[in-house]
Amino acid sequence: MERTDVLTAKEKMLLDALEPRAVQEGVEIVDIEIVGAKKAPTIRVFVDTPDGVSFDVLSSAQAWIGDLLDEVDPFPGAYTMEVSSPGIDRPLRTLQHFQRFAGSTVRIRTCEPVDGRANFKGVLSVEGDVLQIEDGGETFRIPFSTVKKANLIGEIEF
Questions:
Q1: What is the pTM of this model?
Q2: What is the pLDDT of residue 1?
């Protein structure tokens, strides 16, 4: 199950245009963001692979994503494209993302209150299409359909 309603119409259009090629390339489109000024926006495409993201993966992805964006021509005039790894605070957009990172510490913001709250931080588990967050001894059950934004909370061990 995928939550594309958290994407803008333009981001969804770009995701739909890029995903078939990404599958061919063995790359996952983790997320797409359009930020900045309307006259010269920045399109950020976050990619990942099962083996992580190397410079070669980014270089290759930049080339084919650039070609596809030229074909789609998402904005009249200039725009900037950035292709990067999802980073240590990886966004979580699909139910599969949540399932993959069960047991990790996450931050979730909902589009409507759940148990009187809209912001959650804690250890993730998944039961069907319900996300469970363990936070300070309390467990919150968050329907996947209410998630507005979510990401891992990166942990660095020294």
A1: 0.81
A2: 56
